[in-house]
Design brief:
Structural class: alpha/beta
Shape: globular
Strand order of the largest sheet: 4-3-2-1-10-11
Largest sheet: 6 strands, mixed
Strand content: 15-25%
Number of strands: 11
Helix content: 25-40%
Order of helices and strands: EHEHEHEEEHHHHEEEEE
Distance between the termini: 24 Å
């Protein structure tokens, strides 16, 4: 039977070229998921779980078997699992939902969880109105462009995507969470009622827990490349924690 706690994780970047020991990283993630199977009722995967993913009509990328198997096992046991699309695993279509039993979310959600109101999203683009971002987002999500891309052999597309991801990391994709941070700006300018108790984001590869306006808390989940951080909500409070095996 599912437990009583809600877990939030993000930014595994499974398959990334810059991860020194991919098998060890995957095994550590699987170990964590196994450790929470008895007390988790819901798990939110807030994007960039895979460093790159593109489903073809009859073929999917290789790898991640242990991770996929554990997710399917937990879902089959009755734990509700939500997978929010990030800016790296944007091209999830029907394979992962049908095979793993996860609910894929494209965008943000406002949810009531055990009496508290959560704003949940991967975080890319929030508070960032740059023209470059809007153009890239529209291009990546365009169905016609996706069909054209799918016609290119994976021997070309996969190395290209992984090299681009690696370049972004080298060029400061995880810069410090500064005063001009777009996510903080988004939370500060969020005016809808009722008030949000917790804003929970991934994307930024830094672990942040800060009060914003005396009511809301901003939680940035960090990553599972260096920090192995996550948040857990026990029905009373949401806390950032770190996994050590």
């Amino acid at each position: 039977m599912p437990g009583t706690k809600t877990y939030f994780l993000s930014d595994f970047h499974l398959g990334a070229k810059y991860i020194d020991n991919p098998r060890k990283q995957e095994q550590r993630i699987v170990s964590f998921l196994e450790s929470i199977r008895n007390d988790a009722k819901e798990i939110y995967l807030l994007g960039d779980i895979l460093d790159y993913w593109f489903e073809y009509r009859y073929v999917v990328p290789k790898g991640y078997v242990r991770f996929f198997g554990k997710i399917a096992e937990l879902a089959d046991s009755g734990i509700k699992i939500y997978w929010f699309i990030g800016n790296h695993d944007i091209w999830i279509f029907d394979y992962l939902p049908s095979e793993l039993g996860v609910e894929v979310v494209d965008g943000s959600q406002v949810k009531q969880i055990d009496g508290k109101r959560f704003f949940i999203a991967h975080g890319d683009g929030l508070g960032d109105d740059s023209r470059t971002f809007r153009m890239l987002r529209a291009f990546f999500r365009n169905r016609f462009c996706q069909r054209l891309y799918s016609g290119i052999h994976p021997r070309w597309t996969v190395p290209f995507a992984l090299n681009w991801s690696c370049s972004n990391r080298v060029n400061g994709d995880d810069k410090a969470f500064g005063d001009d941070e777009p996510l903080r700006r988004f939370v500060t300018n969020y005016k809808q009622d009722p008030k949000i108790d917790y804003f929970v984001f991934g994307h930024r590869h830094v672990a942040v827990d800060e009060n914003v306006d005396g009511i809301s808390r901003l939680i940035v989940l960090g990553d599972w490349i260096k920090l192995y951080s996550y948040a857990v909500y026990d029905g009373n409070d949401l806390k950032l924690q770190y996994f050590t095996d």
